[in-house]
Every structure is written in C-alpha cells, then in structure tokens.
Amino acid sequence: PYGMADGEGPAATGAPPPGEGGGDAYVQVPVSRLDALSGAVHDLMGVAERHDRLWERFSDLLRDMRALAHAPQRVHADPVALFSRMTRRLMAIGREHELMTGQADRALLRLGEDVHAISLVPAGTVFGSLAAMARRIAREHGGPQAQVEVRLRGMEVQAERRVMQALRDPVLHLLRNAIVHGHESRAQRLKAGKPEQQTITLTVTLTGVRLQVRVSDDGCGPDLKAIAARAVRQGMIHVDAPLDARQLLARVFEPGFSTRAHVDHLAGRGVGLSIVAEAARALHGTVAMEQAQPSGTAVTLTVPVSQRQRTVLLVENGEQMIGLPGRVIRHLLRVMRDDIRMVDGCPFAVLPRSGMTGVPPGGDGAPPDDEALVPIVPLSAFVGDDAGTGYLPVRSGAVTVAVMEVDGVSCGFAVERMVEVRTLLISDASAVGLDSELVPGIAWPREDRPVFVISPDRLFERWRARGGRGMHVAPAPPPQATPEARRAPLVMVVDDSITTRTLQKTILQAHGFDVMLAVDGEEALMLLLQSSRRVDVVVTDVEMPRMDGFALLAAIHADPRLATIPVVLMTSRDNDEEIRRGLEGGARAYITKQKFDQGELLETIRGLL
Question: Where are residues bearing 4-aspartylphosphate located in the sequence (predicted)?
Fold first, then answer.
C-alpha cells in the first residue's frame, strides 16, 4: 500500500514476504529434520502393526473367555489350570501393550517436536522489512526531511510462522501509531533534551512459552487527559469514574477510539489499535499500553509462541473440567464465607489494592483506599447446566476463586475446585456442538476426560452483559436426597470411537445422567444382559465391527427382557434409506453425527424417559 521509496529495496514495499500473498508458503527444512520425521513415522508404523497383532491375540483370548462363561460344562480341562493359562496370556498382552504405548509416546513426542521445529521462523523474516516501511510513513507524515530511527532487536527469536505473520499487520499499525501520535517538532524535542530524530524500537523476546513483541518510542507519550475526555464523550466511562492510568490506556483499544482531531490516510479513524487488540485476542494473547520511561509510549503484544499448545488452569465445574487460560489469571483465592463483602446485595472479595485493577463500586461497603473490591460470580452461571443462574460453591466454609483480568478489568470466578496448571494441546471445538464463542477449544488429556477451554474475552462480555459486577446469587443448595433415593437415568453409549464415547459420556454426566460404555454391539448386548441395573436408553453408532447398530437394535427387540428399552441410532451419514431402515427396525430416534448438537441429544434422551 505504500509503494517503493527512492533508495529502498523491495522490502520497503507493502507487499508481504514471499509465500504470503495468497499462494502456498514454503520453508527450508534441513535434511536432518526430514530424516528425523521419517524415523518417527517409521516407529509409529511399527507400533500400528504391533497393535493389530496384539488386538488379534486379545480378541482370541476374549472369545475363549466368553465361551468359558457361556458354556462351562463343555470345558473338560482343569478349570484352575485353564484360568491360570488365560491369566498368563492376559498379563503378557498387558506387558506388550505397556511397551507398545511407551514406544508410541516416544515416537509421537519426537514427531511433535520435529514438526514444531519446522514451523518456526526467525522474527526477522517477517518483521525485518518494517523498518523501511516505518521510515516511509515518517516522510509521508512529516515531509521529505522527516527522519525516524527504527531499531530492531530480537530478530533472531523464533516462533511459529503463522503467529509471526498474524502479528505483522498489528505491529505495522503500532509503528504507524508511534510515528503519528508520538511526533514532536524539532524545537519540542531539543527543549526536552532529546535527539532531533525520533527513535522507535521494535523488540521481540521469548519468555517461556510466550512471545512478546514490544513497540516503544521516545515521543511525547500518551495524553491521558485527552484519552479520558474522549472516553467520556464516547460513553465508555463516567466522568467521575476513578480510573488509574492502566485502565485508562486500555480504552484506546476499543473500536472507534481516537484522540486525533482530524482524519487523514494515516490516522484519526479509530481503527488502528482496535485491530491490534482484535489480533491479540485471535491469537489468545493480550495487548497493553504504558507510558515509557523517561518519555514516550510502549505497547506490548503477548501471545503464545504456539497456537496449539496453551497453558491453562484446570478447574472443576460440576462434572465438567474447564480450562481457564493462564495469561489472564491474576490471583487464586480461597475466601472464607464470613470474609465475603456484600455490596448492594452482591458478593465481593477484598484484596490489597497493590497490583489490582478492579474498580470498587460505590454504595455501602466501599473499601478503604488501600483495598480493592473484586466482584465474585460463579463460573457455573455462564458454563454448564446451571448457566443463567448459578450458585456460589461453598466448600468447608470457603469459596475458591480465580481472579481474571481482561482489558484492565478484574473479576473473580468461583469454581468448585482447582485441579492444576497444565500445558495442553488444544483442538477446535466448533465441530462438537458446543458454544464455540465461549468454548473455542477442547483438549483431551490422558485421562480421556475432555477439557473445555474458555475464551476469557467472551466470558467477560457475558459478565458485562449482566451488569459487570457481582451477581445476586444463592448459596449452593443442600443435598435433598441420597443417591439411592433419586438415582439418575442410566444411558448406554455404544460406539467404536473412543473420542465419541468419551465426549458423549462427558456431556451426559454433566447433565445428570449415569453412563455405561460399550465398544460395539456385541459388548453392549452382553452388558445389557448381565447388568444388575436396567438401562433406560441406548445410544448406539450404526457402523461398528463385529455387531453393528442395526444388529444390536434387532437383538434388543428380539429379547423380551430388553425389548422395551428405547434405542437412539447415530450415524456419520445422512442417508434416507439408512434412516428408514433404522426407524422401521424399531429405533425411537435418529441423530446424524455431521449435525451433532448436544442440545438435540439431551432433548431426545429426555423425551424418551
């Protein structure tokens, strides 16, 4: 968008680096990396072959055990010796499975490390051309004689290419903002004891698993009075709101915010910094502005170095495991019930003001100057079965609270239990029927219990929509009956996919159902016949090995002991003939996996009870 300046090479233009203009991007990969990848893939293929052989052995053993269980009178061998041989076979299979799992883990770890290393690029490959572009912007803004020194630091730091590239335009906005808003005349700079030439520094650093990109200048610095006046005019804050500099500077990232009196092609439209903030949120990161020392402005973008691995605080919310992004966690508290401050009927935690950005509300109960009130709301009011109401979960006379901060505002979310902090591999959650705005990511730790990763920005949006302060919430209700007196309905989930089984189990348990799992129709039928507790609903996949969903449906309806159990069929294909076959065979409902929605599943099951 800027063309080429005299004396500047192609890097000074607005064109993206090679491979970023919409076509395929290419990276140079050392041969040693390719050899390592090939080795890891070869190891995984070996594990897959061993897994197939192990499964055959296990199937043979399972068949022998079932034959013994169904017709023990036909066995002529010594039962003790036979049981001993079967036990040894099972233990041998277990040992080989353990060895195979370790080999697979090591190969996957190597593969992940090598693939991740290939995706890394130095910061200079993406940000190196921005210095020339900044000098061109300075000349456009201040005339042909305008000069600006742009210093690039940390250009050797490596991060994922897509992360670096996603930050390129936001960083260019920050450079433009530093030139336009930090501009001072020669006389002003000399009077302030500064060099005639403005200096802008772009610094890239890596701290743990987080990438920081900082743009600082030695210009005039942010005009806090002008920012406050503009925020008041736009209705962002009340004229008497007691905001500190940090909270005030957070307002400049709001859409439409600008302190420029006139609009030109470089500034004044109020879109630049909001684009930066939106880019940071899209990368699950943060952005903050501060007054640089001794003068000027500094803006820091902080994002995960990898977009698939994120550090989260695991908390329990009913039967669900929730992941709260570590980047927004400020305090972890255990607040005694008697220490909760009630203000206008809403619960607040009292914290030392040092380091806090929560704004105390007015009214009775306002804290002294050295304390800050942080509103407490139950996480269950926004996530899970109690969404919309929620209770403060009191355990042993105390409430467990995770204080989070977004855009300079703090709120404490009460949870049932904090588990641990973990770095997880996050997958897109949009395909599993969840609220993808609030829960954009899902992770599957080794426990096969999914972790639903919350978007803090969307969570705070929904909190603000309810008033942006403590909520009128009731304490957790006392238990009303024993488990025996009010036993939950039992749903059997039959699917050969462990992911589908586990996901459906988690959804159903979170909504008050007991769940029994089976890997195929044959195991499901055996469990139905042997279970001491009657199954209330069967939800089964159609395509499965050994006994598919149609065969299971027929077997259930053929057995008088099971014939009254309603069956819900689930399939990956939206096929009219298949649906007709299932319904004519006695299925009570049919759900297509491609259109899977947890609300539809729950409504269907409840309608059959």
Answer: 541
Mean pLDDT lowest among 34-38, 235-239, 265-269: 265-269
Q: Compute the average pLDDT of residues 197-218.
A: 90
How far CA 212 is from CA of 30, 118, 196, 281, 316, in Å, comes to 27, 21, 29, 14, 31
Alpha carbon distance 99, 107 (integer Å): 12
Rounded Cα distance, 219 and 179, in Å:
8
| Half-sphere exposure for 246 (CA within 13 Å, toward CB) | 15
Q: How far, in Å, are 348, 367, 379, 454 from residue 399 at the CA level?
A: 11, 20, 12, 21
10 Å CB burial of residue 520 (0-12, 13-18, 19+) is: buried
User: If pLDDT is split at 50, 70 and 90, which confidence band does 432 have?
Assistant: low
Please give the order of strands across the beta sheet that includes 537-541. Answer: 514-518, 490-494, 537-541, 567-571, 589-592
Burial of 93 (0-12, 13-18, 19+ CB in 10 A): middle
Contacts of 154 (CB under 8 A, 6+ apart): 123, 203, 204, 205, 206
Least confident of 11-20, 347-356, 473-482: 11-20
Mean pLDDT within 28-41: 80
The dihedral built from the CA positions of residue 572, 573, 576 and 578, taken in this order, carries a sign that is negative
- Calculate the alpha carbon distances from 117 to 36, 159, 428 in Å: 11, 9, 22
Sequence-distant (≥ 6) Cβ neighbours of residue 458 within 8 angstroms: 437, 438
pLDDT band at 362; cut points 50, 70, 90: very low
Average pLDDT, the chain: 79
CA atoms within 13 A on the CB side of 569: 29
Strand order across the 148-153 sheet:
148-153, 198-207, 210-217, 297-304, 286-291
Q: Which residue has the higher pLDDT, 536 or 476?
A: 536
CA distance 608 to 587: 11
Give the integer Cα–Cα distance in Å for 181 and 75: 90
Mean pLDDT calculated for residue range 502-527: 86
Please report the beta strands in 296-416, taking only residues with DSSP state E, as ranges in sequence order. Answer: 297-304, 309-317, 320-325, 329-336, 341-343, 346-352, 371-378, 391-392, 394-395, 398-406, 409-415
Cα dist from 365 to 212, 228, 362, 585, whole Å = 40, 27, 8, 66
Residue of 239, 197, 237 whose CA lies nearest to 219: 197
| SS percent in the chain: helix, strand, coil, step 5 | 40, 25, 35
Contact (Cβ atoms closer than 8 angstroms) between residue 557 and residue 528: no
Predicted confidence (pLDDT) at residue 583 exceeds the cutoff of 50:
yes
- Whether residue 476 is predicted with pLDDT greater than 60 in this model: the reply is no
Of 124-138, 172-186, 432-446, 549-563, where does mean pLDDT reach its minimum?
Answer: 432-446
